[in-house]
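Escalation from tier 1.

The customer reports that the assembly of two entities below gives different structure tokens on two consecutive runs. Tier 1 could not reproduce it. I'm attaching the input and our single run for tier 2 to review.
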Amino acid sequence: MLMGQEEAGLGVLTAGQELYAPGPGWLRLVGRFIRRKPLGAFGIGVVLVMSLAAGAAPWLSRYDAEERFLTANPAYAPGTFEPEQKQDARAGPSLKHWFGTDQGGRDNYARLVWGARRSLGVALGALLFAILFGTSIGIVSGYYRGWLDMILQRLMDSIQAFPAMLILLLLVALTKSSLVTLSMGLGFVALASVQRIIRSAVLTAREEPHVEAARAIGCSAPRLMCVHILPNVAAPIIVVFSIGLGSIILADAALAFLGLAPIEPPSWGMMLNEGRGYMNSQPSTMLAAGLAITLTVLGFNLAGDALRDFLDPRIRLQ
Amino acid sequence: MHQYIIRRALLNIVVILLVITGVFIGLRATPGDFAVSQAAGRVTNVNSGEATALVRHDLGLDRPLLEQYGDFVSGFFRGDLGNSFATKRPVMAELKDRLAPSVELAILEILIAVVVAVPVGILSAVRQDTWLDYILRFFAIFWLGVPSFFVGVLLLYFLSRWAHWSPPITDYQDFFENPWMNLQAMVLPAVAGGLAAGAIIMRFLRSQLLEVLHQDYVRTAWAKGLRERTVIMRHALKNALIPVLTVVGLLLATIASGNVVLETLFNLPGLGGYAVNAIRQNDYPVVQGVVLLVATSLVFVNLVVDVAYAWLDPRIRYG
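Tier 1 run:
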């Protein structure tokens, strides 16, 4: 009995090795993934931590993001203009303020945690916008081809002919910037490349025998596109989703860094820009914000790469 | 080939027309008006509504939209982009002043990117799956995640702390008048932007080179007993570099985007800061001019890259 299993294990190699590894099945799978793709696992870890911070911001943040902490003013003396208390500004890391405080005496840790919610929220919204419209345009363009395809593709070319940052500046600075317009602007910039990938997937999918068969039995064009072609381009959509998030978070941070994003809720880009004003006396704000952006973008890129290898090794963005 | 170039050039013109039409409509469809903010700071004895109307009339903003659009497009074909609302100077002349620092920064960034990425990419591919390859690849992935403006801020911080050096805060000096001062102002943004672009080039070059190294003609070169240096530099690298060229061309768009932030951070009087200001002030002709200039250069650079691609690699034919 045991021998038989072992022999079967030798035949199926990996499956056989797993039979004798300790622990429940999913744990073994996780362990194997970490050993095979340490960077991808690291990325997924970062994504999980940041998602947790974003989801549970009210419970994890310890303080309110806008609360200004006060301490006794050592220069206080009755009868002078010195106030009794002043803002506990630009404090270094301590047990009370894990990452120090900013120029207004606000807790950097709380602002970072709320920044995670804002950053991920905006990026998610942008990507959903890009994928919703990008997929629709890509499918319609790839399915009908001909003059409609030509017009749509030239429109998309003209979006791509702008440097992304200029479009964003235009969209965000001209509409009174809110998180929603910011998100839509970022999604709009990503739209062109998303639809291009979807379109090329549709071009192959529409020639497949099952689509041909569906057409032959008289399916309508909308039904063909939604029921028969859409499931075939699901993999590229997921890949675009995972790879796009990192660059959208980066673009969002750049806009906030330039001071073009709303000042509430706090964002990492804004913190980095404020922090560099006093980095020579207290670098903790600047470092914490910059490292948060770096770690998050890196994590999303690594996780996206791993997911892409897993789902479809052929697709490459850029 | 000639036909292809002509067709692409004509298509590019269509794309540019679409771009400037988009900007034209986008600017006027969104709230915020130069005239309102301008009139607010003016004479007090006229009520603000009248003052605004006066300014609008001066700027020609009270004319029908179609007429404004016609003027704008016909001016575009004559090489006249109108006058800046804020300075009243021709946009064309202002763009010319602002172009030099931006172009210089982009060139320096590409130079740094290539100088760093090509040797590193070769090393990483030739020593595939050794610890050296892992370290180099990790650095490349790492640089993709670090925002160039954070690198810029870190460079400023650590240089002033450890080397007691920071870029000169004097006015920007032209390269041809005062190259030393100019380079001092340029070096940090060029390094910050160049390394980010270098990471992309390195990763791409590595994968291309790996592909080429497994081809038959490279095995033949090894079998002939050629030195490693000759096989890699002469035989493999030549073919691996061709697709990299396209990526470098595409990177120009990314670099132009990133430079908006870097120019603002390092106070360079380039197109980036100019555009940000103009957008904040609703200076329509300037915004239109910058967008037009950048879009035009990008689409034609892409065309040149595609043509160069076919020229370098005779297997590629455009129909």
